[in-house]
Amino acid sequence: MVRTLTSPFVLAARAIPAGRRLWRAAAARAAVVAAGLRRTWRRSLQVRVVTITLVASSLLVGGFAYLVVHNITDIVLENARRDVEGRLSDGQEYAAKQLSNHTTPSEQGLKATFENTVNYLAGGDPAQLGGVVVTLRASAPGVVPATSPQVDVNDMLSAELRHQVESGHVADQIRTGDPFGTGTPTKYLIYGSPVPTRFGQVQLYYFVPLTRWDQIATGARSTVLATGFALVLLLGLLSGLVTRMVVNPVRVAARTAQRLSAGLLDQRMVVNGEDDLAMLAASFNQMATNLQRQIVRLEEMSRLQRRFTSDVSHELRTPLTTVRMAADLIYAERDSFDPAVTRTAELLHAELDRFEDLLTDLLEISRFDAGFAMLDAEPTDLVPVVRRVVDQLEPLARQCRAPLRVTVPDAPVIAEVDPRRVERILRNLLGNAVEHGVGKPVEVVLGADETAVAITVRDHGVGLKPGEEKLVFNRFWRADPSRARQTGGTGLGLSISLEDARLHGGWLEAWGAPGHGAQFRLTLPTRAGDRLTSSPLRLVPADAPEAVGGSESTGRSELVGGTQPSGGPESVTGPDPATSGSDGAPGAGAAERAEAPDRTAPSGPGWTPTRPAGPRAPVEAGPSEVTR
Fold it and tell me: What dihedral angle (degrees, nearest 10) is formed by the CA atoms of 581, 582, 583, 587?
């Protein structure tokens, strides 16, 4: 049989990782417990009040108990000193009287006198144990000291005490010892006094046990501590009960308010009594009733307004159709009219087109408001959609002298979207960019990654002032009301685009800076129903003041549609470009953007590394150009 001997170093090497694992587990458990305690402390007003009351009352009662116990101990010790001093005084007189007959330390009866004196002073019972010990000691040589009871107390007499007594002073000292050999040390109060005799000085010592006095002090201390502990518990219980009486109605009010905020407008608090809390509950119920009445009223007004808008839009269809037929007939024969009538026919035809577009947009807005808008999502290649929108707006771009630059991938970009709604969003964005581009190029970029697709529309026109990126999606809002429209828009295009993006579960964001143009970014999930967490394209252009370190006042990007990304800002207005990552995902900082690879260029298969706003922008070859 072979025995394997394990080296202590091997055992230690095995024990160290195990100890580390145990330490990590204990630390993790402690962290969980600490987190739970912190969470309870933050969330529970009752716990905080009870804890603070317990701590404050404990400190107060503890200080009071310390003072009481200290005073009791001092009183008990003072009583013991007085008792011993009285005994010592009587013993000194008695010893002096007994030793007055002796003139020399060598007399025959001196030893017997010593023993009789200490026996009498000790109580007359030399065999008593645990009682007072009395001893007589002479300074003269050859005199044997006498002790009653006969125990060894030499170790308990300190040199300092002996010196003071031999010097003629009464001195005392507290020492601990076991002169009787019981195995339990006892605290003694030792008093020494000189006794004058004819043959020299004699020292009388009393050893008085403090056991009884310690018991008295311990009993008083225990009583004070028990009373203080009971008082602290009572204060904690009372504070808990009082806090519960106050906090419970507040908790009920908080739960009722949460139900009200969730739409349960019929929730009310129970009113008990006529005190302040009952007044709070009654006032809360009155407030809830008023809010319910106002909300119901507003909902009814909103419903009537939506119905009115829808009904008016539908009812205007019939006269509009009749007027359209008459206007088309007049417009077709305009060349045979006088010039003034011809111009009137042209204006009538243009305004009827705008009026028809306004009715269509109003009907679409009413569907969104009523919640009847449906998403007809299907797998769609977005590259032809972008090209089709660019081709549709190419005549307008020529008219405004705003060249279109388009960057699309070679490979198809497939996403589950409603192509009609996406095309409408792009028409609105591109039309606004051409109108506000003041004859400068307009850039359109399509990008995609594994979870999302994004389209950015960038113009280099007047841009947006700080705060206007929050208003561009409002209905009928215009950045410059005094400037005439080139495209005859209705003022509802971006609002409808916002609703279309939300219907897809996507984002529609805006960035702008005065004098540096604006950029809009549409981000949609690749699969319908998925939640967006980032965008393949960045919202802030590479040539923006924020990107190149400019100091100009710029507008901030705002998320105004779609599902808010995880880890994003609390406001529904979207990520801040100053803190957005290179992919547009909220939460990534500038340092991360500097270290992360450039994701502004599309990353799918077939993409070219060109960037529409970078130094290698495609060369213009006409009013519009597609870069592949």
Answer: 0
